Amino acid sequence: MCAIYVLKQTFFFPFLTYFHPALMAAKHAKPNFSQSQVSEMVKRLFKLTPSEIRSLPSYDDQNFYMAPVEGGEYVLKIMNSEDSKNPNLVEVQTYAMSFLHQNGLPAQTALPTASGQLMSLEEIDCGYGCQKYLVRLLTYLPGTTISKVPLTPQLLYETGKTAARMDKILQEMEHPHLNLLQREKFIWSLSNLALLEAYIYVLDGDPLQEVVKSVIHQYKTSVVPKRPDFRKCINHGDFNDLNVLVQPDERDGYRISGILDFGDMNSGYYIHELAINIMYMMTEHPNPIEVGGPVLAGWESILPLKEAEKECLYVLVLSRFCQSLVLARYSVTLHPENAEYLMISSKRGISIFHQLFELGREQVEKVWFQSAAQFSDRK
After folding, report:
1. Exposed/middle/buried for 303, CB within 10 Å: 0-12, 13-18, 19+?
2. Which CATH number fits domain 144-377: 3.30.70.3270, 3.40.50.300, 1.10.246.10, 3.90.1200.10?
3. What is the pLDDT along the chain (379 residues), one digit of tens a residue?
4. Domain named Aminoglycoside phosphotransferase: which ranges (predicted)?
5. Strand residues in 200-275 grouped as ranges (E)
6. Helices 346-359, 307-334: inter-axial angle, 10-degree rounding
7. What are phi and psi of 11, to 5 degrees?
8. Residues annotated as catalytic (active site), given as ranges
9. 21-85+107-139, which class in CATH?
10. CATH 3.30.200.20 residue ranges in the chain?
11. Minimal CA–CA distance to 323: which of 146, 234, 191?
């Protein structure tokens, strides 16, 4: 018989080194709850009666859309057993979502359990012995991912503006476990690009390897020395084309209706969020180099860049490409059965990365900063 654990809103578990889901190699860490188990759990924890439950895609967690007879729409998120060992970190992420929501940004919030907790630690046998999984019921945000709509200059502007607003709000957040966001060995932090050197062997024999090595060298020589002049903040860390939802607006365009997935939150720098935003929007645009201008204009409408930050933007965008491409390739070696899912960002990413690298900093920055200035002048 598996036990049931209920976690209060303050936790006292030791912090464990956290790796991105794509790097998680633990066998059977992903939950595999049946719909009947989900239904029972929702009734017991939240006193709600599901009228509709359907599975939602996720790599290492298990997500369900849930509409109860009592009304409303929710996402039941069952975290993998590895990340469930870090409840303090998950608590900070959950609080950050609520904090953004309270400050006017469209983030999910967690519905408390019947006993008033924002998450519950459930020990259940999903087919490979009793394991513990953190469970949250999050509000459902309407919309479609920004990857599925035309990326107009106006919508790109809005992504930059929203990302800057988000980080500016997060910087005001207070929480007793905020120090857990330091995450010094977190492989996806743009502060930790040098950690990639342990993984680039997966590119042996691929010409891409030399380009990645060159970018890491540029990062060490041109970004690291300027880092003391960057402004610190809390980064969402994964403001990408699959984590931003949009809905049609009244002007035949789209507005941002949701910000998802706070699992990569870390203490970083404002310029990191901007670089991540630009990089992922490039992967969805027919003319990738044109993306930087509108995103930059939107960002600077909230947070104008300092000179040191401007000088490092190009290399930081390349650096995020390196992280995405190398770690996707590495993850395929761990989970070859999920190769198609894991290589989503790589499909066009490699050619865009090469194009960006070959154009060089001077030419790319000219396009980005001139178009940003022109876009701002039209506002």
Report:
1. buried
2. 3.90.1200.10
3. 454 333 333 222 222 223 344 454 455 678 989 999 999 999 999 999 999 999 987 767 899 999 999 999 999 999 999 989 999 999 999 999 999 999 999 999 999 999 999 999 999 887 778 899 999 999 999 999 999 999 999 999 999 999 999 999 999 999 999 999 999 999 999 999 999 999 999 999 999 999 999 999 999 999 999 999 999 999 999 999 989 999 999 888 999 999 999 999 999 999 999 999 999 999 999 999 999 999 999 999 999 999 999 999 999 999 999 999 999 889 888 878 777 766 665 767 899 999 999 999 999 999 999 999 998 777 6
4. 53-289
5. 232-235, 244-248, 254-259, 266-269
6. 140
7. -120, 160
8. 238
9. alpha beta
10. 21-85+107-139
11. 191
Q: Within the chain, which residue ranges are assigned CATH 3.90.1200.10?
A: 144-377
Alpha-helix runs per DSSP H in 301-360: 307-334, 339-342, 346-359
